[in-house]
């Protein structure tokens, strides 16, 4: 599958080659009309073939689960004419770029060019590329020339081969596994792309460009690095010798459209009643922990909950790589710092949590609780900083409590287990469990309240759960968000904010 502009480029190249071979004279308008007719014919023919081959609703069989879940199409079938065309065209453009780029760099003042607006630099590049094509008698049509200029621009100003993937809003994750393998996540599913780098050094150049923007470095002495792109996308980089098959770059893209609880409700990530309860919980200044696996949508949910925070409050956010998108006017964003070459000067999450308590915050938001900072966060929640939010990696609400207990132990404080659990029960009000399910959809599976202590056990009650029922013909999971019908333990807090009646209505 390719977009119409890509199809136009490939068909245009075939038409040009065939016209030249047959020495057929066609003017520009006739050529464009021919290409348009061919595209329309191809698209209509493809739709007819697809519609005529629609199978009956498949009956689930064991073979489906014994085969690979998501095979790459090229592994099981011969490439189509269009796929051959795409690979040959991209090969032509890459070959032309490798010939032209060194000569462009010789004629261009790089330091001055980097300060120009992208449009002006593109125009200047167009002139230089045109001159080089004429001098070297290289033949490229207009779309190919434009593609070469875009690739050179991406190498100079952006992230090279990754630029088209960053521009695609449907792509949520980009995973570079060495120079020859780039995966993306679209709609919750992983796909292998045709994007490749020249070699390992090309990947390293892109990695260095990313970390240089945030004042960090990646080399043999520091082969691990967390960073962010200019648009706020989160990046993790790991290079050889730790990454055996070449440098690995993982990009969690920054969503241009901020997700709200209302949007999540429309997307069926949550039920309308759950959205209401979560809005009331955030408004009522509950201390909330968001629990979930990697890529389950914890940060997205944290952003959505934070939109309920009053604009008159002072918020301090603490993250390893800043990616939260808070809409409030009074936000102080803090970010950890790695050690320098001598191994000194590191500022940890725990240092920032301690410092934030001296900054008169109304709410403290931790991007992710993963270590000894859990102690300071719990103390902050217990000492008047209610309404604080944080995320943790765990598969169930009860596991999240266990992880918190273990992280308190990492601080080296020798407290009895009951004392730690009592502090957790006193500090936390609610755990929201979010999960990315096998159909790619993120759903909130539990909204769980923390009630208190019974002997040595932290007691909880589920307000809402997601009950899985089955799978429809399209492979989407079906189920229902079920209310427990219990009286919420935080009802007195909700009543203090005049939201008690709304809360009970939502609970049914």
CATH architecture verdict of the domain at 261-507: 3-Layer(aba) Sandwich
Distance between the termini: 46 Å
Helix content: 40-55%
Portion in strands: 15-25%
Total number of beta strands: 15
Helix/strand/pairing category: alpha/beta
Low-confidence stretches: 64-89
Give me the CATH fold name of the domain at 261-507.
Rossmann fold
Mean pLDDT, nearest integer?
A: 81
Can you tell me the overall shape? Answer: globular
Just give the CATH class of the domain at 261-507: Alpha Beta
Main β sheet profile = 9 strands, mixed
The CATH homologous superfamily of the domain at 261-507 is termed P-loop containing nucleotide triphosphate hydrolases
Which radius of gyration do the C-alpha atoms yield?
27 Å
Number of helices: 19
Largest sheet strand order: 9-8-10-11-7-12-13-14-15
């Amino acid at each position: 599958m390719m977009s119409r502009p890509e199809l136009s480029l490939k068909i245009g190249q075939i038409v040009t080659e065939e016209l030249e071979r047959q020495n057929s004279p066609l003017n520009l308008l006739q050529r464009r009309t021919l290409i348009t007719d061919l595209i329309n014919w191809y698209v209509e023919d493809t739709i007819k073939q697809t519609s005529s081959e629609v199978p009956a609703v498949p009956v689930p069989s064991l073979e489906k689960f014994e085969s690979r879940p998501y095979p790459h199409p090229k592994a099981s079938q011969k490439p189509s004419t269009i796929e051959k065309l795409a690979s040959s065209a991209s090969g032509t453009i890459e070959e032309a770029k490798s010939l032209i780029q060194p000569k462009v760099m010789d004629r261009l003042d790089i330091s001055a060019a980097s300060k120009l607006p992208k449009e002006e630099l593109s125009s200047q590049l167009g002139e230089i590329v045109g001159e080089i094509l004429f001098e070297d008698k290289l033949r490229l049509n207009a779309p190919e020339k434009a593609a070469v200029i875009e690739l050179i621009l991406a190498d100079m100003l952006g992230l090279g081969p990754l630029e088209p993937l960053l521009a695609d809003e449907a792509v949520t994750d980009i995973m570079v596994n060495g120079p020859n393998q780039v995966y993306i996540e679209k709609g919750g599913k992983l796909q292998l792309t045709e994007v490749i780098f020249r070699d390992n050094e090309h990947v390293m150049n892109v990695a260095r460009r990313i970390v240089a923007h945030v004042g960090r470095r990646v080399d043999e002495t520091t082969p691990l690095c967390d960073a962010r792109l200019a648009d706020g996308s989160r990046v993790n980089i790991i290079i050889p010798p730790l990454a055996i098959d070449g440098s690995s770059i993982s990009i969690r893209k920054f969503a241009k459209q901020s997700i709200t609880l209302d949007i999540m409700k429309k997307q069926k990530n949550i039920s309308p009643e759950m959205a209401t309860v979560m809005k009331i919980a955030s408004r009522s200044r509950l201390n909330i922990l968001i629990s979930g696996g990697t890529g389950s949508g914890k940060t997205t949910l944290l952003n959505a909950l934070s939109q309920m925070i009053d604009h008159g409050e002072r918020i301090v956010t603490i993250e390893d790589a800043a990616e939260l998108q808070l809409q409030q006017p009074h936000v102080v964003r803090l970010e950890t710092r790695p050690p320098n070459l001598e191994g000194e000067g590191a500022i940890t999450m725990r240092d920032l949590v301690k410092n934030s308590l001296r900054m008169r915050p109304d709410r403290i938001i931790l991007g992710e609780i993963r270590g000894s900072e859990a102690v300071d966060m719990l103390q902050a929640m217990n000492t008047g900083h209610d309404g604080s939010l944080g995320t943790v990696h765990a598969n169930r609400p009860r596991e999240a409590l266990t992880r918190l207990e273990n992280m308190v132990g990492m601080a080296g404080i020798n407290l009895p287990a009951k004392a730690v659990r009592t502090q957790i029960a006193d500090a936390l009000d609610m755990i929201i469990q979010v999960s990315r399910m096998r159909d790619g959809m993120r759903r909130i599976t539990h909204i769980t309240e923390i009630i208190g202590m019974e002997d040595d056990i932290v007691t909880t009650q589920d307000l809402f759960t997601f009950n899985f029922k089955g799978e429809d013909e399209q492979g989407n999971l079906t189920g229902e968000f079920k209310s427990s019908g219990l009286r919420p333990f935080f009802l007195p807090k909700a009543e203090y904010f005049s939201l008690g009646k709304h809360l009970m209505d939502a609970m049914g």
